[in-house]
Design goal:
By secondary structure, the protein is of the alpha/beta class. The chain has 4 domains: 4-15 and 27-218, Rossmann fold (3-Layer(aba) Sandwich); 221-305, Carboxypeptidase-like, regulatory domain (Immunoglobulin-like, Sandwich), CATH 2.60.40.1120; 308-377, Sandwich (Immunoglobulin-like); 383-462, Immunoglobulin-like, CATH 2.60.40.180. Helices cover 19% and strands 36% of the residues.
Length: 463
């Protein structure tokens, strides 16, 4: 207790350094406002003796020094919510929580005065207090932080972990900080699911934890993403990266990856109080779950994302119009991309299956895309089938393989058989019955061959 002032003097010096170091940055981009809500346990157990005092007095003194220190930060507002202090335990009031000091600039004196008036008395309604805390934050885009200080578990049959998670998913506040004062080790698990948990086993640790938490909440955190090739070299770039909130799947940041002239990725600012999944939007995407980001530090994230290029070559205009191919990962039935002929597209190194949207379809299996190389795919130019006969009827075109097996390609229009149709080179069968024919025996069946760049004419009943 005697060295409180020394510890907080050092903390004040740290805040000054942080403020001075960020002056140039602030001139370029004003930092977001951070609102810190202290959620203080004032249940009866906070009267328990703790070293030279009791838990409540220690908490009051440390918070008083802390809010004084925070007052020098222009972009920080502080509020105080207390629970368990309005009614005695005999009343068993599970709604005993109150916002004692709302958010405001430079309100340290108001908070310190209120702290001195608080007397621990009742229950520990953590869940209900978190729920009510959601309304304490103004409805804007500030960074909302909750620091819960407690010496016990929920006593009102609530689920503080579920409540905290639900409010984080709604962006009410960031991942809370939880400080356990004199908590038994077996109870830590029940508090750590609320947020980032710190065990304050003694007064000195409590001081250090408060300093660490505020430093984490206010310090700048950066990440550098290195996109690695197959040799582990960070040479891949120019890909969009999405930092998803791991709790609700919503995008928090989108950055197109960049390498400077020395081949070094730039540093990106992120809020370290959010849990992230990183999606590197290659084709297919690469996902890194639960990024380990250390607050207040420069972090490096390495992701293996070797890429090569697939080029679908097209020589001259196509009678198909804009020809395309469906690209799937080898062995998958999920469409990965629809790539237009004449274009190049980067894919992760690996094998792919292509379905070329010709008539009939062309299926290319195990097309390999190699890192740093271009895989060049071309197909034979089509020919054309011309049917000059103009009648109504029912007919189809079938392709024939080397064994003579026929595979359906398309049906002909019923209202008019006169068409010109682009087909890939190969052998085909034409099957047709006119609408006026009086029986199946009047079906016309003809074999024909299509050659690249040539037109084959088929006349129905040779008319």
């Amino acid at each position: 207790m005697a060295n409180w002032h020394r510890t907080f003097a050092a903390f004040c010096f740290l805040l000054i350094l942080l403020s001075a170091g960020s002056t140039a940055l602030c001139q370029e981009k004003k930092p977001p406002k951070t609102r810190i809500l202290f959620l203080l346990d004032a249940s009866g157990s906070m009267l328990a003796k703790w070293e030279d005092s009791d838990r409540m007095e220690v908490a009051k003194n440390l918070l008083a020094h802390l809010v004084d220190s925070l007052q020098g930060y222009e972009n920080v507002e502080v509020a105080l919510r207390v629970y368990g202090h309005q009614f005695g335990r005999e009343r068993n009031d599970c709604k005993d929580t109150k916002l004692e000091v709302p958010f405001a600039a430079r309100n340290a004196e108001v908070i310190k005065k209120k702290l001195q008036q608080i007397v621990p008395r009742g229950n520990t309604p953590i869940t209900y207090s978190l729920e009510q805390a959601a309304g304490d934050f103004p409805a804007d885009k500030s960074r909302n932080v909750v620091i819960l200080i407690t010496d016990g578990l929920e006593s009102c049959n609530g689920d503080p972990c579920a409540m905290s998670l639900a409010l984080q998913k709604k962006h009410i506040f960031l991942r809370p900080f939880v400080i356990g004062i004199g908590i038994e080790p077996e109870f830590e698990k029940q508090l750590s699911c609320i947020g980032q948990y710190f065990n304050a086993a003694d007064v000195q640790t409590f001081e250090n934890v408060l300093t660490e938490i505020v430093t984490q909440a206010l310090s700048q955190t950066t990440v550098r993403v290195e996109l690695l090739d197959e040799q582990g070299k960070p040479v891949e770039t120019n890909v969009n990266m999405t930092f998803l909130n791991a709790l609700n799947g919503q995008p928090e940041y989108n950055y197109v990856h960049y390498l400077d002239s020395k081949g070094t990725p730039d540093m990106l600012e992120v809020d370290a109080l959010l849990p992230y999944d990183l999606v590197v939007n290659t084709t297919p995407p690469v996902v890194e779950r639960n990024l380990a980001i250390e607050p207040g530090k420069p972090n490096v994230i390495r992701v293996k994302a070797p890429q090569g290029t697939l080029y679908l070559r097209q020589s001259g205009p196509s009678p198909y119009g804009q020809l395309a191919a469906i690209v799937r990962q080898h062995g998958s039935d999920q469409t990965l991309n629809v790539q237009v002929f004449g274009n190049r597209h980067k894919y992760l190194a690996g094998k792919y299956d292509l379905e070329v949207l010709t008539m009939p379809r062309i299926y290319l299996k195990d097309v390999e895309v190699k890192q740093g190389q271009t895989s060049d795919i071309s197909i034979p130019p089509p020919g054309q089938l011309a049917i000059p006969t103009q009648v109504q009827g029912y007919g189809s075109i079938y392709s024939l393989d080397e064994s003579g097996k026929q595979v359906w390609v398309c049906n002909l229009p019923e209202d008019n058989s006169k068409i010109t149709l682009a087909l890939q080179p190969g052998r085909y069968k034409f099957v047709y019955r006119t609408k006026s024919a009086q029986g199946s025996k009047f079906t016309d069946v003809q074999d024909f061959t299509i050659r690249s760049g040539a037109t084959t004419t088929v006349k129905i009943f040779n008319r």
